[in-house]
Write a structure and sequence with these properties.
alpha+beta; 237 residues; 17% helix; eight-stranded antiparallel β-sheet
Length: 237
């Protein structure tokens, strides 16, 4: 028979119990409580998420650290992707507005007498650049690189419907943009066969030169030539 007096009395009812008993022989109270698990250090509570947190530690701090890391990774990955950078620049274009930019020099590969290439940047709708045939090109050079947001093209000899059809028009332009570092961007611009300005969104950074080649002529018959009224450039405001 175990020595009852050698054991610890029950903390609830005071009944003496043998030293090897785990529960009180009278009220079943636990005589040797299981020790509580030790608290984890704070750095082990960050990842993976755990139910137990260190004593006096901040659950809010842990969540804030995790959130900051996730946001930083997402933002970094987004900006590193070309599509992410393009979307960011496009958003800045829309929020900043646009301002006109005047080329420092304008030069054509060919021009009809009396209709020089500089007529495309004089701001007058009844003066135009005359090109003898498709394949003729016009090149605009700018003093400083800029973000080309929009291009506005006024096709034909005039904005007047009667005068517009007097000369032939190019309904497709091959655009070659050269940036400050020498990179070339090629785009095909399709124009409507109608008088008046036509806006073409571009969104190209660090532009130094823009070259337009006339293609897809319409109305080109004997005694007529291709007419391009105005070409306007707009940068980010």
């Amino acid at each position: 028979m175990p020595d009852v007096a050698a054991g610890a009395p029950c903390p609830t009812c005071g009944t003496p119990n043998p030293p090897d008993r785990r529960f009180c022989r009278r009220c079943a109270t636990v005589l040797v409580p299981t020790a509580a698990p030790a608290a984890l250090p704070w750095w082990r509570t960050l990842w993976p998420p755990r139910r137990r947190v260190r004593a006096h530690s901040g659950r809010a701090v842990r969540l804030l650290v995790i959130l900051t890391v996730v946001v930083a990774l997402c933002a970094g990955g987004f900006l590193l992707l070309p599509a992410g950078r393009a979307l960011l620049e496009d958003t800045r274009d829309k929020l900043s507005g646009a301002k006109p930019v005047t080329p420092a020099a304008t030069e054509a590969s060919a021009e009809v007498s009396g209709h020089p290439a500089t007529n495309t940047t004089d701001g007058l709708s009844n003066r135009y650049w005359g090109a003898p045939a498709p394949g003729a090109s016009i090149t605009y050079t700018f003093r400083e690189p800029f973000r080309l947001v929009d291009l506005i093209v006024t096709n034909g000899a005039s904005t007047s419907p009667e005068d517009y059809a007097r000369q032939a028009r190019a309904l497709r332009l091959e655009m070659e943009v050269t940036t400050q570092d020498g990179t070339e961007h090629h785009e095909e611009l399709v124009l409507s066969d109608k008088p008046g300005p036509q806006t073409i969104p571009t969104g190209i950074s660090d532009v130094k030169t823009v070259r337009l080649v006339l293609r897809s002529a319409v109305g080109l018959t004997t005694g007529r030539h291709l007419a391009l009224g105005e070409v306007e450039f707009f940068r980010r405001g």
